[in-house]
Design a protein that fits this description.
mainly beta; leucine-rich repeat; about 170 residues; single chain; seven-stranded parallel β-sheet; repeat; LRR_dom_sf
Length: about 170
């Protein structure tokens, strides 16, 4: 036994109290989930990764995660109506990163609620324009729009903090 291991030095352990573990990150990548009904979503989450599932709707419990900073719905089956509630939930307005890559979006969601957004990814969707991008926070440092149907660059002027812009595999002329 290493020095200090299993000696019961902790006051909480010595008093027979259990110290609750705070869950900050929940990674449900490639679980093939159709919904989150069987999943416990801890209210302490700062990161939620739902990449590579079969989700067609956004679970309303996500709207009750005030500490959430990173959210990924990459590779799901979400359309515009399915993601719309995300952009109305005040409790998650502190999001810094939202990934909606590889879904079924036709238009850019109104992300104006996320005032401190740093990463916005809507690559591999069915977006036909950048219309609505002006509502995305000027704090964004990384914008991903590759593999859509975007014919021209527009509504990019206000991104003064932008460090990375990905527009590859679009219809830009």
């Amino acid at each position: 036994m290493a020095s200090g291991e299993g000696t019961g030095d902790s006051n909480a352990a010595g008093a027979g109290m259990e110290v609750p573990e705070v869950e900050l990150c929940l990674d449900l990548t490639s679980c093939q989930l159709h919904d989150l009904s069987e999943v416990e979503i801890p209210p302490t989450l700062e990161e939620l990764d739902l990449t590579a599932n079969r989700l067609t709707a956004v679970d309303p419990r996500i709207g009750h995660l005030p500490r959430l900073r990173k959210l990924s719905f990459r590779q799901n089956l979400l359309d515009d109506d399915a993601v719309a509630p995300l952009f109305t939930w005040d409790a998650i307005a502190g999001l810094q990163e939202i990934v909606l890559r590889d879904n079924k979006l036709i238009k850019i969601p109104d992300a104006s609620i996320f005032k401190g957004l740093l990463v916005f990814d809507v690559s591999f969707n069915e977006l036909s324009s950048l219309n609505g991008l002006s509502k995305v926070s000027s704090t964004v440092k990384e914008l991903y729009f590759s593999k859509n149907e975007v014919p021209k660059m527009e509504e990019l002027e206000h991104f003064h903090a932008l460090e990375l812009l990905e527009l590859g595999s679009n219809r830009l002329r």
